[in-house]
Amino acid sequence: MSKQSPASLLIIEDDLDIADMLNAYFHVQGYDVETVNWGEDGVRLCQTNPPDLVILDIRLPDIDGYEVARRLKANRKTHDIPIIFLTEKRQREDRLQGLSLNVDDYITKPFDIQELRLRVRNTLLRHQRGVLTNAVTGLPERQLITEEIEKRLILGDFVLILVSIKNLSAFREVYGFIASDDLLRAVVIMLRDILNQHTHQQSFLGQLAEENFVLMLPVHEPEVLIQRLEQSIKKSFDYFYNERDRESGRFEHQLRLNIHHWIIRSGSINLQTLLSEVDQRIV
Asked: pTM score, two decimals?
């Protein structure tokens, strides 16, 4: 049986020391790695030999990383290449500008090389799975959630609950990528346990964007379930702060929980309207 070909990475980084370090590190990790120092070279290389993933610095000597991302996303041949921004820019506006270009992730310098490795791995897993399930939690993502909503709209009455974790990005910057993933997995375990205790059949749990979870179940006292969700998840947040922050209670961007729910009656709403209402509530 032939071995699977290694995933290919293109690193577009003008700092030669960082570029060489990333090249050597990911090569040892088993990836096929190329590096370029100019944005135009990165665009050309993606068009002639598309990599499986691009690690892209924003500050480049010719065109910036935003322009590189725009060109890749505008070209049908390179549109689906996942991009991770690697940059010194830390302002919220810079992050939003990058994410608005549909890049897959954003990590700021100085960075933890192990964290970057995990982000690369998770991003590749998401794309290999066709973006159907979340790489961290294994939960169904948007396409499968939409199909489940469509099915339930046909079958009859149900409850849809949106559980959102607020300030997860700020938590990740302080405590790191691994702690953030651990928190998400812990939340999923609690959601599953509470769903199983509340209803033993016909329930559904999915992940709509990183910080947002969708629960669907038959119409049966949703307020009781929501109260249990709030109590359990809010209580668990304290476990993930370090002792100093927990004792001081002064964590600058404290994790918060938002829960919204819809009681859907047969024929009362169509798929696109419901999806639009849910998207408006997303963190």
From this structure: 0.59
The whole-number pLDDT of residue 24 equals 96
Strands 8-12 and 32-36 turn out to be: parallel
The answer to whether the beta carbons of residues 109 and 116 sit under 8 Å apart is no
If one counts every other C-beta atom within 10 angstroms of the C-beta of residue 222, the result is 20
- Of 276, 260, 271, 139, nearest in space to 205 by CA: 139
CA-based nearest residue to 107, from 131, 128, 89: 89
Upper half-sphere CA count for residue 134 (Cβ side, 13 Å): 22
Question: Per the structure block, which two tokens stand in for 148?
Answer: 């489940």
Domains of the chain: 8-128 (3.40.50.2300), 142-281 (3.30.70.270)
Residue 275 has pLDDT above 60, yes or no: yes
Token match 């010719």: residue?
62
- 111: helix, coil or strand? coil
Q: Are strands 212-217 and 158-166 parallel, antiparallel or unpaired?
A: antiparallel
Q: What is the pLDDT of residue 99?
A: 65
Measured CA to CA in angstroms, residue 52 lies from 10, 94, 111, 217 at distances of 8, 25, 22, 38
